[in-house]
Amino acid sequence: MNTVTRATALTAFRDTATAVEVDCAPMTQRVEHRRETGADLRLTIYRDLDAIEAEWRRFEPAADCTVFQTFEWLATWQRHVGVRVGAQPAVAVVRYANDGDIACVLPLCVVPRRGVRRLCWLGFDLCDYNAPLIARDFSQRVAPDRFLAVWRDILRRLQADPSLRFDWIELEKMPQTIAGQVNPFTHLDVTRNASGAHLTRLGDDWEKFYNAKRSSATRRHDRTKRRHMSAYGEIRYVNAPDRDDARKTVETLMEQKRRAFARKGIADIFVRPGQREFYLDLAANPKMRELVHISRVEIGTTCAAANLGVVFGDCYYHLLASYDDGELSHYGPGALHLRELMAHAIKLKLKRFDFTIGDEPYKLEWSDTHLELCDYTAVASWRGLAQCWLSNGRRRAKRFIKRTPWARRLACRARSAIGALSSLHLPPRPGRGRN
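Above: the chain sequence. Below: its structure as tokens.
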């Protein structure tokens, strides 16, 4: 991930009350780069999601992106999380000047905290992949130095607007590629994220896929554990049939995750502002019905495992999963549910199963593709200096712990000790059933 030589600045020509528009004139100062700069570009920055919704939705099917860059996902985040943390959307839309078609959409926002304003991705904390939406011919038509020139002008235009002014930049969890195209943000001076992402290519037949991925001894062990679970009652794989059922399943999932977080000494993500409401909205929102997949494994009257995933394009995104922490946990209900989910994805004729961010061992067992993620930070004013320094230090420490075996073991032991203390204060497990 090399830093590309900076191009010349762009020229602004119009400001409006709802958007800032900039004409990106072709570079003439450096003749040797004329061939590389590609198409002329125009830039518009939107502060209001409603103003760009129609174009964004039309662009999605024709763009290279992940589900985390869809309008509905990010609008739901802004509605529940963004408004609570004071996020101000700053969506940069770059168009080809000759035909007006969208070249890319950069869903950014400015978030204030303790008097310091950060420029980051819209939905930054609930997107496993943060990236722009790019046209499928973006890499052919927009050279790296051209993109960097546009990026610098975006920053300049944001700083010129008092409502969008920022003190530092933090862009995290950016994939190196987007549907095969190079992510243009990797041309910045990025660093490696502490975590990677993992996915597997699916076949067209579950049994063939399962036999290829798991040894005969492992498959036999899976059957043995299933027999043990069946002693507790009938095993059923259930896709939530309606919004009420989906919401109840997600509530069960969050309760199971809360208990798991406490056991492991991890902070409960669902107590953060708006995050519980975000996931419950996904479960009930009719506009997300074609994307969100909510399911569970029931054993007798117990919800043994639950899942919230997303289907987008030819991919199943495995986002949230949980399992009951009672006696059934000894026999792997979560692993059973994961197999059911991959079989479900194959039945839908999907091509990929994305385990998303994280390097948990079970992901490594199934995946055949590793995706590197990267981060970018920069100081924009003296007020952001300390925050940027702390952010870089936090990421370096996290990378060191994750990539150093002894440090990782020590951190896991410390977390387990904290979890053991936290578990003493957990309320009794709910009775059997889905509550």
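Residues 51 and 374 are 30 Å apart (CA to CA).
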